[in-house]
Amino acid sequence: MVFIVFIIGTAGSGKSLLTASFSEWLKINEQDVATMNLDPGAAKLPYTPDIDVRDYVTVDEIMEKYDLGPNGALIMAADLIAGEIENLKAEVDDINPDILLVDTPGQMEIFAFRASGPYIASEISKEPKAITYLFDSVFSLNPMNYVSNMFLAAAVYMRFLLPQIHVLSKCDLISNNDVEIIAGWSEDREALENAINKMLDGSKRLLSYRLSRTIYQLGLNFSLIPVSAKTNEGFIELNAALERVFAGGERITY
Ligand code: GDP
Known about the structure:
By secondary structure, this protein is α/β, with parallel strands linked by helices. The chain has helices at 15-28, 59-66, 70-82, 85-95, 108-112, 116-123, 137-140, 143-160, 176-187, 189-199, 202-217, 235-247; strands spanning 3-9, 33-37, 51-52, 99-103, 129-136, 164-169, 224-226.
């Protein structure tokens, strides 16, 4: 059985480095892990993917072939990947790892907010899947940004309807105190509302307050696991969360 983890987050939130570091960490812990790059525009990756969509489609080729700019080519490339689903599936079946970490395109809308992303997620395998959604630490320090990220995470959940784990990425870049504050917002609605009232004013305060209330009413849980792909902090907790989703808390690879 292959457990598939799609790593999703805004551009620069740390998806590729997390794929690199977490897969290495899992290997050290004797887990049978493989990596897949789904970004046809990735120029350089901090790991060598076991399965790479650029073997089938690249943004550079599309730009040249269809005389498109980088954005148009990226959108077209992302849609063309859907046509390569059988090849990608065959590669997954060939390698047949216990866990597959899937690094999604840099700009998350390319994967999350076009038809091809959920199609790929649904067709790549019928085995269990989950999403790890990244909240960038530095960006999330401001409660308005934090609420915007909750909104994006809720939108991603709505698009894929898969179990979703939430990570506070790059936590080594902010103080331990700030990590605790943001993680506290994710556990306690009142703590977030107090921060919104204290740190924001005018329309920003009103919108952040109302939006956070609306998201809470959806009953979604955004408990954040602080993680650093530089120091490996939080990998034990992230792995435990994945094991809870996939194996009822049991180890994934024996
Ligand atoms: P992506 O666009 O979401 O795939 O983000 P990347 O993985 O490419 O990371 C964007 C930048 O943030 C790169 O310069 C990374 O080296 C850096 N970065 C990623 N994760 C971490 C982290 O945990 N800690 C620190 N300090 N930097 C990170």
